Structure formats: structure tokens, C-alpha cells
Amino acid sequence: MITFSVLETGFGLVGENLSRDWIGSVIGLYGQAVGQLSFVFCSDDYLLDINKRFLSHDYYTDIITFDTQETPGFISGEIFVSLDRVKANAVNAGIEFEDELARVLIHGVLHLLGFGDKTAEEKAEMRRNEDLCLAMRTGKA
Asked: What is this structure's pTM?
């Protein structure tokens, strides 16, 4: 099951069912199934607090992913997304908010699927997979 919730903002995700279908298709593409997957939309300050408390990082980020998988083959986790960072990223990249939000959402899913982004090679592989998944979203894959 894929859920979306909002903390500290008045945000409402447009096209929740389409997003669920797309994310489920991505997970299936990688040979996995959806377990319990929760996306939580929040503010910069809320995510900064999580970053400090759980990861000992004192900086803003757009996403934090917690893997809660209990059953092999079923992707489960909590993905916290800072809407403030997504908006800033979209402006800086000159793209629509919805497109950047989709990239961030699928970035978290890819982490749960085992992709990293610490090294240059991992970042390049992550970007290739993000692009593939985003093409699935727009029907260009």
C-alpha cells in the first residue's frame, strides 16, 4: 500500500492514484512488489529536525528515506519530503514543481530498491534510473 500524508503544510498531491500506479510500476520494473510505503510531505524545518535527530546531519535536504522492509521482495519504507526544498530545487533547475517532486519521490523509491548516491558513480547510476522512471511517468519510456 502506498500512502501520502502532509505535516505542517497545506499541500495536496494532485493525481494521487496516478502517482501510486506509477510508483508501483517502477517497483515492479525492478522485480519487487509494494509493501507499506509512506510518503510524508513536510517543511524544511521539520525535515531538518529529522536529519539532526536520526542522521546527525545539520543541513537541509529534500528527502530522507527510512527502509522498513520486513519481507524480502516487498519494498517498504517511510519517505519524508521537504516541499520547501522541492520548490527551491525546481526554481533553481528551471523546471515545474510537479516534475521536481516526481524526481524526488522516485529518488526515495530508488534508495529503497538499493541504489545509492554517495559516490560519483552511484550518483550517475541514480540519475540514469531517475530518468528512466520519470520517462515511465510521462509515457516516454
From this structure: 0.93
